[in-house]
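Fill in residues.
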């Protein structure tokens, strides 16, 4: 008899295969005494495991596919930084030396201490960081125990390697990457959020995924036949032949759909009523540019610069940054490169900045432009590097996390000062370099009209904007159900920024997750958005949505949707907007 389980479809697609159950519990750790003369050897063993964990993460980061959102590499970078923290790099060593205990037991004690500290925190954002501690410590522990990572079992060849549907309690982004390398058919987790790092990565890698399928371990057995419907968040167990045939047909339809998308690469993004829309890419590493160009995209709407600063003990020099920006703008051959200045905070500290201590709430602390303005050793070399690179192509500078006009004035003063510095040294740059800001907080959205009078462009970061507006951590299982891009407040703030750009005759782009989700394309077009920037993997779907849209039809329905405060009515109008036929006259 067929059984149906429900969860949240976080990555669309259909998968048919066999259940592969994984256990992610804490391993049993034995305690034993180490003779005094072997203490140094035991410490050396711990440090060797620490180095091994670091090497694994560095290798994993290098294998992140091009086009994956930068949040995923941020996640791996955060784990690398945790390995450098004294709480993990030194505290277990002190326990070994003081207690004459084995390295595994010392690490277990330290894990228990850290987890207790995080669990007692009132702030939900910080409580969820406990999972990161677990992931990092488990990686070290597995090396100490000379156990292979759970996911390494998947490296063993099977008769049908593409036939496995992973079932787990929860998964990290690094787990997802390993599964992608093994070409698993799909993923089911008992916990997890639609906007978690893992969910974002699963979507980018096109792995059908259902999260929040509670008690799935209770109902599923290894090797059991499953149908995973990532579109509707359903899991079917031991289905009858007719149901299997139906879902095989749906799976083939999706493959055909993907082939049709591939044919759109050379086609311009133009609506049915002949309005050209600019589709740009979010890029972190130069290697992603080829993927972007293969998808038919020329412009980079968001170039993340954090990778230049992380996992190193010294700051990147002006010359190093300049060479990177110059090479990148030359690679896109006449297209526009929008460089975002450093967007980082105390949740991912830079070792070279000694005063970067952990904040009570990193999301509300010294981050992004606040950090750069406080540490001119970060800001000034980056401004000069961007200015110098602008002599080699079309470059724009974008400032993240701006909340006041005072910050904009400070940035502009620093830019003017560096222009004078370059002039005095006869160094070339684009004197008309465009400067814009990211709108990521309600304060910035409400101030957008004033910002637009002082800047050349605006870019809406919907991930943070929704998070700050709704006062929730979108990666926290306890509150992620409240994360709703269709919340009236979020929609009105987005619309307010778009109108501010139009009123002041400057371009407005949107570079958050919403830009790469084709379900929202018509709504955003109806709001007046004409520039989208997204992960390269999302470009084909969004382009197809643009090609199938008539603005003269989308705008009236969008205006109705924006006018109502009732969520049910918003959902009804949203569905109606996406159902409307572009051929209707």
């Amino acid at each position: 008899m067929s059984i149906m389980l429900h969860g949240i479809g976080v990555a669309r697609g259909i998968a048919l295969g066999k259940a592969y159950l994984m256990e992610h519990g804490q391993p049993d750790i034995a305690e034993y005494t180490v003779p005094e003369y072997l203490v140094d050897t035991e410490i050396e063993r711990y440090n060797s495991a620490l180095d091994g964990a670091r090497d694994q993460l560095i290798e994993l980061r290098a294998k992140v596919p091009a086009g994956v959102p930068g949040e995923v590499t941020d996640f791996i970078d955060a784990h690398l930084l945790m390995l450098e923290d004294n709480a993990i790099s030194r505290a277990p060593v002190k326990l070994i030396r003081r207690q004459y205990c084995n390295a595994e037991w010392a690490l277990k004690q330290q894990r228990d201490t850290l987890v207790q500290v995080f669990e007692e925190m009132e702030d939900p954002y910080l409580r969820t960081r406990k999972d990161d501690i677990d992931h990092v410590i488990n990686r070290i522990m597995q090396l100490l125990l000379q156990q292979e990572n759970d996911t390494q079992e998947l490296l063993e060849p099977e008769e049908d390697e593409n036939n496995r549907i992973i079932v787990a309690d929860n998964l990290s982004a690094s787990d997802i990457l390993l599964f992608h390398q093994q070409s698993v058919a799909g993923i089911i987790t008992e916990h997890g959020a639609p906007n978690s790092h893992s969910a974002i990565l699963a979507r980018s890698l096109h792995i059908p995924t259902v999260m929040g399928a509670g008690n799935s371990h209770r109902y599923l057995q290894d090797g059991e036949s499953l149908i995973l419907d990532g579109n509707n968040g359903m899991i079917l167990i031991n289905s009858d032949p007719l149901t299997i045939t139906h879902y095989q047909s749906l799976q083939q339809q999706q493959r055909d759909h993907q082939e049709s998308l591939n044919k759109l690469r050379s086609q311009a993004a133009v609506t049915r009523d002949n309005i050209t829309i600019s589709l740009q890419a979010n890029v972190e590493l130069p290697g992603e540019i080829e993927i972007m160009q293969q998808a038919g995209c020329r412009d980079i709407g968001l170039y993340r610069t954090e990778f230049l600063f992380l996992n190193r003990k010294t700051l990147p020099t002006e010359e190093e940054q300049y060479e990177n920006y110059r090479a990148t703008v030359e690679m896109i051959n006449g297209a526009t490169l929008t460089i975002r200045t450093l967007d980082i905070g105390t949740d991912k500290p830079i070792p070279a900045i000694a005063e970067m201590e952990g904040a009570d709430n990193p999301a509300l602390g010294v981050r992004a432009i606040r950090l750069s303005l406080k540490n001119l050793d970060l800001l000034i070399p980056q401004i000069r590097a961007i200015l110098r690179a602008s002599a080699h192509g079309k470059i724009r500078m974008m400032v993240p996390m701006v909340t006041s006009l005072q910050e904009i004035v400070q940035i502009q003063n620093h830019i003017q000062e560096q222009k004078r510095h370059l002039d005095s040294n006869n160094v070339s740059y684009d004197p008309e370099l465009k400067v814009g800001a990211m709108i990521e907080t309600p304060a910035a959205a409400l101030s957008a009209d004033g910002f637009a009078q002082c800047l050349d462009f605006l870019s809406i970061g919907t991930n943070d904007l929704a998070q700050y507006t709704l006062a929730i951590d979108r990666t926290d299982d306890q509150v992620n159900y409240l994360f709703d891009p269709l919340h009236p407040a979020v929609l009105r703030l987005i619309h307010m920024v778009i109108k501010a750009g139009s009123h002041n005759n400057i371009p407005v782009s949107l570079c958050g997750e919403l830009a790469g989700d084709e379900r929202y394309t018509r709504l955003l077009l109806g709001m007046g958005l004409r520039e989208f920037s997204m992960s390269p993997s999302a470009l084909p779907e969004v382009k197809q949505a643009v090609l199938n849209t008539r603005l003269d039809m989308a705008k009236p329905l969008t205006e109705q949707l924006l006018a109502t405060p009732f969520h049910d009515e918003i959902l009804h109008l949203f569905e109606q907007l996406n159902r409307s036929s572009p051929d209707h006259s």
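Residues 36-150 form a domain with the Enzyme I; Chain A, domain 2 fold (CATH 1.10.274.10).
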